[in-house]
Design a protein that fits this description.
Pfam families: DUF4136 (PF13590). Keywords: Signal. The chain is an alpha+beta fold. It has a domain of 117 residues: Double Stranded RNA Binding Domain. It contains 4 helices and 8 strands. Strands 1, 2, 3, 4, 5, 6, 7 and 8 form an 8-stranded mixed β-sheet that branches. The longest helix has 17 residues. The chain starts with a helix and ends in a 5-residue tail after the last strand. The N terminus is likely disordered.
Length: 202
């Protein structure tokens, strides 16, 4: 029993620590793409204000690199591209998430082992224990990607990747969303899957 209490305490502390965690995204894709045979493409921003920007250009390069690995080719003349890839991304202003400290210290009331506050689970206030609460901000981000045939204007791919994270920095979020979007690309049409991206090392 004592060993179980220590293991549970360690797990709870680890969950509340700031250590690196995997990036989890939910990806929905709808596709009518044919097998790639070297079709050319150009990546554009859904937001005209971002088109031509340096930051957007970096994210567009990530999308381009993934499409090349799938068998497509960047168009030397964007006006002559076989496919137009429209990309959009954003992160919200965040919402506060509150967590309660479930673990009390040893010898809090004369006992030698950590205790666990059951009032957290059952929703009532326990007057014998302090109500230690901490909070942090959770941000929701989204990447939208669609592909259209230039000749017909027909849309042949629609994809959305959503995630929640402790940061709102697009420089960290968008590359992970792009990687999630192209994991198993183009996927099974109409299916939503959970994609886990391993945290960066170092």
């Amino acid at each position: 029993m004592k060993k179980s209490l220590f293991l549970a305490a360690g797990a709870a502390l680890l969950a509340l620590s700031g250590c690196a965690t995997p990036f989890n995204a939910r990806v929905s894709r709808f596709s009518q793409l044919s097998v790639p045979t070297g079709q050319t493409f150009v990546v554009q921003s859904r937001d005209p204000r971002l088109q031509g920007g340096i930051e957007f250009g970096q994210y567009a390069q990530l999308v381009s690199a993934n499409l090349v690995r799938e068998g497509y080719r960047p168009a030397t003349d964007p006006a002559q591209a076989d496919l137009v890839v429209n990309m959009g991304y954003h992160v919200d202003t965040g919402r506060e998430k509150v967590v309660s400290d479930l673990i009390g210290g040893p010898n809090r009331y004369g006992w030698g082992w950590p205790w666990y506050r059951r009032s957290y689970f059952y929703g009532f206030h326990d007057p014998f224990y302090d109500n230690d609460v901490s909070s942090y901000t959770v941000y929701t981000s989204e990447l939208d990607l669609d592909i259209e045939q230039t000749a017909t204007g027909e849309r042949v791919f629609e994809g959305t990747a959503r995630a929640q994270s402790r940061t709102d920095r697009l420089q960290r979020i968008v590359p992970n969303l792009v990687e999630a979007m192209f994991t198993g690309f183009p996927g099974n049409s109409g299916e939503t899957v959970k994609i886990t991206i391993a945290p960066e090392r170092g």
